[in-house]
Task: inverse folding
C-alpha cells in the first residue's frame, strides 16, 4: 500500500490522487430535458457569463482554491466547445460529462463520460425518442478516442442492468460506470433500499463474471449499497467544491438544490470514497477517467 501511495505522490497526484477537485457547470443550456435530470429539477439560475469573464473568474478560482482537477458538467458542456477547450486548459486534469449528442472536439484534453440510461428502450424512455440512436451515431464518429459510459440507475430503468454487455458492444465504450439516482423523495426515480442492495449484488456478479464491463471497483460498489452511506465518504465534506454557471459556489455539492444525501448514488464519489479507504483499483480508475489523452 505504501508503494502505491508513494507512486501516486511521485506522479504529482497527491492529496488522494486527484489534488483538490471541483465540478463546474459550463452552461445552463441543454438540448434535452431528461426526466431524471437534477439540473432542471429546480428553477434554472441567472444565465451564463460572457466567456472571457467566465475564464478570468476560473483562473482566479483555480489559484484561490489550489484546484488541480475539474469535472465539467452542465447543462451540456459540448454546447460551448470553444469555452470548454479554453476552460480545460486551466487545469492539469479534466473530465467532461456529456449526453453524447454533440461532436466531441478532437483536441479536447479531458476524459469523456457519456451519460446513458441503458439500451434503447430505457434510454429513450428518460431522454426522448430517438436519442439512443443519435448517441450511437455520434459515438461512431469518435474513431478510436476512448470514452466511458456513465449510467445512472433509476427505479424506472433497473432493467438496464440486463443489457450492459450489449450496451458496451453497441457503443464501443471502454466500460460502464454505474450509479444510482440522487434526488429528493418522493420521486418515481428513487430506488428503495432493498432494490438498491439487490442491484449492487447484480453489479458485483457482473464485475466478477464479465471482466472489463464495469468500471466501478467492487469496493466502491459496497459504498453505494446502503442508501445514505455515501454521505460519510462524501468528497464535498472534505474540500471538494462545486460551482454553478456563474461560478458561484453551489451547495452542498454539484446536485445543488436537488441534493439528498439519503439517496445519493454518485458513482464517481463512491470511487473517490473507496480510493480514500486505500483501494488501489479505485485510484487507478480515477487516474484513467481524468487522464489527458496523449499525456502519461
Ligand atoms: S442531458 Fe444531462 S443536463 Fe441535459 S437534461 Fe439530460 S440529464 Fe439534464
Ligand atoms: S448529495 Fe451531495 S453532499 Fe450529499 S452525499 Fe451526495 S454528493 Fe455529497
Result:
Amino acid at each position: 500500500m505504501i508503494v502505491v501511495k508513494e507512486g501516486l505522490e511521485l506522479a504529482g497526484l497527491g492529496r488522494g490522487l486527484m489534488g483538490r477537485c471541483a465540478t463546474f457547470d459550463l452552461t445552463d443550456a441543454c438540448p434535452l430535458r431528461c426526466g431524471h435530470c437534477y439540473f432542471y429539477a429546480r428553477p434554472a439560475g441567472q444565465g451564463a457569463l460572457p466567456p472571457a469573464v467566465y475564464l478570468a473568474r476560473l483562473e482566479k478560482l483555480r489559484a484561490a482554491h489550489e484546484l488541480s482537477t475539474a469535472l465539467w458538467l452542465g447543462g451540456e458542456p459540448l454546447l460551448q466547445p470553444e469555452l470548454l477547450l479554453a476552460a480545460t486548459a486551466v487545469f492539469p486534469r479534466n473530465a467532461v460529462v456529456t449526453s453524447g449528442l454533440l461532436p466531441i472536439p478532437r483536441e479536447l484534453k479531458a476524459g469523456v463520460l457519456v451519460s446513458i440510461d441503458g439500451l434503447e428502450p430505457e434510454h429513450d424512455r428518460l431522454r426522448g425518442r430517438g436519442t439512443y440512436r443519435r448517441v450511437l451515431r455520434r459515438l461512431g464518429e469518435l474513431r478510436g478516442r476512448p470514452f466511458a459510459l456513465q449510467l445512472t440507475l433509476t427505479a424506472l430503468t433497473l432493467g438496464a442492468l440486463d443489457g450492459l454487455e450489449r450496451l458496451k458492444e453497441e457503443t464501443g465504450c471502454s466500460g460502464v460506470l454505474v450509479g444510482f439516482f440522487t434526488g429528493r423523495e418522493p420521486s418515481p426515480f428513487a430506488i428503495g433500499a432493498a432494490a438498491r442492495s439487490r442491484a449492487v449484488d447484480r453489479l458485483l456478479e457482473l464485475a466478477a463474471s464479465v471482466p472489463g464491463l464495469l468500471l466501478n471497483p467492487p469496493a466502491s460498489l459496497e459504498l453505494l449499497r446502503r442508501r445514505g452511506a455515501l454521505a460519510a465518504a462524501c468528497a464535498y465534506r472534505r474540500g471538494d467544491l462545486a460551482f454553478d454557471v456563474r461560478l458561484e459556489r453551489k451547495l452542498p455539492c454539484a446536485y445543488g438544490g436537488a441534493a439528498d444525501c439519503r439517496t445519493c448514488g454518485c458513482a464517481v464519489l463512491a470511487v473517490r470514497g473507496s480510493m480514500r479507504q486505500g483501494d488501489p483499483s479505485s485510484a487507478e480508475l480515477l487516474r484513467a477517467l481524468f487522464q489527458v489523452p496523449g499525456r502519461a
The two ends are 22 Å apart (CA to CA). The domain at 17-33+41-289 is CATH 3.20.20.70 (TIM Barrel). Residues 30, 32-34, 37, 39-40, 74-76, 99, 115 surround iron/sulfur cluster (ligand 1) (CB under 6 Å). The chain has one domain: 17-33+41-289.
